[in-house]
Design a protein that fits this description.
homodimer, 110 residues, alpha+beta, Arc Repressor Mutant, subunit A, three-stranded antiparallel sheet, 3 strands, globular, DNA-binding
Amino acid sequence: MTENNIENIKSQMRRGVLEYCILSVLDKNDAYASELINKLKDARIIVVEGTLYPLLTRQKNQGLLAYRWEESTQGPPRKYYTLTDKGREVLQEMDKAWKEIVETLDILRK
Amino acid sequence: MTENNIENIKSQMRRGVLEYCILSVLDKNDAYASELINKLKDARIIVVEGTLYPLLTRQKNQGLLAYRWEESTQGPPRKYYTLTDKGREVLQEMDKAWKEIVETLDILRK
DNA sequence: TTTAGTACCTTGCGATACAAGGTATCAAAA
DNA sequence: TTTTGATACCTTGTATCGCAAGGTACTAAA
């Protein structure tokens, strides 16, 4: 019960920054969807396929991401996503928004 | 367009921590709904009635909040919300979850 | 030619944020 | 004494979105 409650709270917080996390990861290196899922899981941000795929499509449609296909030696081709210039701009805006929220919570919890 | 985009991003981030903010405010002082809205607005967390009322009811039903009615000299009676013991426990869990996410983003953006 | 591994994507349900609209109380002005 | 304005409560309907579940396709090895 309470456990569940807390998991909900965490996932709610994670959801709020999910797009920010995706752009942050892609800012360092291009990546394909399954790879992204693993990198985010390593960073303790849980995200599943059914969440990620539509989200990547949305971000691509907003012009934040572009992609290219690359052949793989061990399975089907991979769709590598990369940040666009607009994506980098938006990422900077996210940095600001994030800083603001962190400050806000510092104050609220002080 | 882009403006809108960024507003969406901000509000998404805000949404993720909204419950945390509410409990944080109530941890300092009991408050009634309209008062909460103003305090959060001052802290740059925008929340509207249609969001807050159902959310307070949810938190009350989860046993995190309790309320009492108090007469007011300038209008209808006010429903003052207060943190329960369970609410305080959950708030501490939120502190942990929040710290974890802040650390995660520090690393992702480093 | 079947199985295992990897990678892509979609569908349907449930939760929820928010705009808009509604009710009730009190006090002061008309 | 009725209307207006301020304050406070709450609900309804719509749209969005996360996630579980299910589905397709390619490659290599058994």
